Amino acid sequence: MQQPLSVSKRITSIDLLRGTVMIIMALDHVRDYFHADAFLYDPLDLAKTSPALFFTRWITHFCAPVFIFLAGTSALLSGQKKSKKELSLFLLKRGAWLIFLELTLITFLWNFDLAFTNIYFIVIWTLGISMVILAALIHLPVKFIFVIGLVLVAAHNLFDQVHVPGNSLKAFGWSLLHDQMFFTWQGKNILVGYPVLPWIGVMALGYCFGTLFTAAYSVQQRKKLLLLIGGTAVALFIIIRCINVYGDPVPWSTQSSPFYTFLSFIKANKYPPSLLYVLMTLGPAILFLAFTENTANKISNIISVYGRVPMFYYLTHIFLVHLFAMLAAEFFTDFSWKAWILKQPLWFAEDLKGYGFSLSVVYLVWIFIVVALYPLCKRYDRYKINHKEKWWLSYL
């Protein structure tokens, strides 16, 4: 019988997937800062978008769910070397640190505004609060964690029509849980972009998923299970979407052509992530793990570097994208670099209408930034490997 994979091999397999989605993630953020239509309409608006723009946005849907799901998986794997108490304390502290980071440094990197006019509760906030909740959940049996995760992901769409209007604390609390909204407070624009309830479920399921990468499963057993789980998720997405009754707040509809009808079919809601959104993204991601577990070549090694230093990459890429947008505005458009000191949320900045470049420029800038970050990521990765005694590295 084939022996189980070593820990290093398991991590390489997971890092390849994480690195892939981190690279794709940068494309979405470059589009946010550079594309001429970014401040005019939603790239998934079928009445206005083009196929190229639609898929430029749609492909990045895989990033957040895979990132948060694998954070849960990594928690399970790191827990193999820690006691439950130690792992719980680590998740609690790291989650609190990520929330603090989101509301301070990361918010600044998005806006370059020392006045912090905009405050974002987006992906790193969700990652942090999900870790805090997971710190408590890990004391339960894995089967109970699985049920909780499954219920949160599969049943939260029952609340799609529940809204708490207004600018009240009650509305803000509900928004943090399940309803993307804007708020104002003492001159601040507050965007709750990632309601956390289903994301907690995604991380909990990722934690349970991590058991497949322990010594209890051989390579062959794991691959069969990954194919079964991933294939089932994809099949469920197709079946539930065809029924068109539950699983997403916006049903698909017949469009002007069969191709655009297909786009309507695969357009699932991310804020918060619907059941169909999770199935659509995590299903193929799990299949990716099944088919790439034994992959080891120059390209996979390069991609894995990004996956081993995700927070370092995340912070540096936002800074570079924003900095280059500022320079581009100053030297290649009629806008001043000061236009990129944002006083309005980036994705709804009325002041930036008329700024931007073609989609081809977006792709060129994206490739340049990803390539430019590789030596920095590789160097930081090597530093982490050579200085495992430095506790603070586990928080970045």
TrEMBL record:
<dbReference type="InterPro" id="IPR012429">
    <property type="entry name" value="HGSNAT_cat"/>
</dbReference>
<feature type="transmembrane region" description="Helical">
    <location>
        <begin position="274"/>
        <end position="291"/>
    </location>
</feature>
<feature type="transmembrane region" description="Helical">
    <location>
        <begin position="196"/>
        <end position="218"/>
    </location>
</feature>
<feature type="domain" description="Heparan-alpha-glucosaminide N-acetyltransferase catalytic">
    <location>
        <begin position="10"/>
        <end position="219"/>
    </location>
</feature>
<feature type="transmembrane region" description="Helical">
    <location>
        <begin position="352"/>
        <end position="374"/>
    </location>
</feature>
<protein>
    <submittedName>
        <fullName>Putative membrane protein</fullName>
    </submittedName>
</protein>
<feature type="transmembrane region" description="Helical">
    <location>
        <begin position="58"/>
        <end position="79"/>
    </location>
</feature>
<keyword id="KW-0472">Membrane</keyword>
<feature type="transmembrane region" description="Helical">
    <location>
        <begin position="118"/>
        <end position="137"/>
    </location>
</feature>
<feature type="transmembrane region" description="Helical">
    <location>
        <begin position="91"/>
        <end position="112"/>
    </location>
</feature>
<keyword id="KW-1133">Transmembrane helix</keyword>
<keyword id="KW-0812">Transmembrane</keyword>
<feature type="transmembrane region" description="Helical">
    <location>
        <begin position="312"/>
        <end position="332"/>
    </location>
</feature>
<dbReference type="Pfam" id="PF07786">
    <property type="entry name" value="HGSNAT_cat"/>
</dbReference>
<feature type="transmembrane region" description="Helical">
    <location>
        <begin position="225"/>
        <end position="246"/>
    </location>
</feature>
